[in-house]
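thread: overnight batch results

M.L. [08:02]
morning all. the overnight job finished for the chain we discussed friday. pasting input first so we're all looking at the same thing
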Amino acid sequence: MKKTIFLIGLLSLIFFSCTKEIKFKGDIEDPVVVVNALFSPDSVMKVRVIKSMFILDNPNQPTLLEDANVEATINGIPCADFSYDKNGYYVSPTIPNEGDDIDIQVRVPGFDVITASTKVPKRVPIILTDTISWQSSLVLSVGNQKFGILTKYINPEGTNYYRTTLRRYMV
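M.L. [08:03]
and the structure it wrote out:
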């Protein structure tokens, strides 16, 4: 009997809930252009141009800006034109080299011009990569093969950020 009452109570908490609407009392700012780019010596130059979103907007639907003009110089020399691809991305066929100084300029009608500059970092030498795999006994796991990767590298001086890209190739 106690189990039945407990189960009914638990189910009522799961299936019924209360909501309280809270009114937003802050200022709603005008949107601005947001530019994201990651340049590396192993891929073409890609820049994403979107419009900023209000905090209560749906983050899964950014406002894509398809009418931007993206220009870049590498070491002071203009590089190949950027063309709109999809999902807010502008792509240039140019592949930068390690140590290149890149300046970008983005123009969107109705907004201020955005400029940014960066230096393509040198590759960090990887001295060891090791993997481990095991079988998962979890019933709800998607696939039961799990992998772990250990990577050791020589850490250069200064503040550093690393990005590791893994790709799966079917043979």
